[in-house]
Amino acid sequence: MKLLTLVTCLFTFIIKLIFAQQNSTSESASTLISQYGNSFKNQGGSILHDKVNVYIIFYGNWSSTQQQQEQVTFMNFVENISISPWFKILNQYSDNSGRTVTGPLNLAAAVNDAGSHSLNLTNDIHKQIVEDAVNSGYLSPVNRLDSNGVYIIMGGPDVNDSEFCTTNCGYNSYSNDFQYMFIGYPGRCSSSCMPQVNINSSPNNSPAIDAAITIFSHEIQDILTDPRNNAWIISENNTNYELGDFCSGKGTVSYQFGNVTQETSGSYNLELAGSKYLVQTIFDLETKQCSLGSK
Fold first, then answer.
1. How far is it, in rounded angstroms, from Cα 62 to Cα 113?
2. pLDDT greater than 80 at residue 145
3. Organism's domain of life (predicted)?
4. Where are the alpha helices (DSSP H) in 81-206?
5. The pTM is what?
């Protein structure tokens, strides 16, 4: 979906949780899987196949030692996630030419923007932030937008957004020239934008950035398989459902996170390059279940 909302039910990824450990990848199907799992298909649009460059704009104040470490944690996840069994599920999603979402995600560039468009944002400003960052030369040495890339705006703890914390925790969208997502700083509204199981401690010692990774794990499913709102999407009654919506749910549901390991340092369901993360499962086209992938 193009908007990661907090309050709607079927097509949102609710991350305000009362969490319980789950013992199976997915023994019960979501409502969307029951309704559309067998008919879900590409509507004829493009996907993001082969290597996908990722460009990150850390917007706002990320100057503290803690926040700099959070940047590293997030970038490490983006850089390494493509080798995971979780990401390989996306190989099942193709365009009409038979090309599939293979990755890898390639962290092409990252830049700090202390607040070039103020610290009070709206959705309309997000595109301009991306365009200005590219034109500055910091994201592209040739000042050129990457039409096959993904631009991420990561809001810092001092950044307000008109819909963040009230309508969404993050969302993805596109312009004529590029795809992008905005993820707010979950620490600004921990009761709404953090998994409650990791609200006090988390696998990477930052409940905020671990929550941002969880949000990203939903949005990247949508943006890779439906970058322009015309590929892997179901439109019904003025509502759009995308890949990430199949394994999201209201509250805690068994298919949302799959097998979760709970430790004093936080809960996780994915180990990758020596680190641990909590990610949303992905709808497996073959098994018709939400999955973390086969190890």
1. 9
2. yes
3. Eukaryota
4. 85-88, 123-135, 190-193
5. 0.90
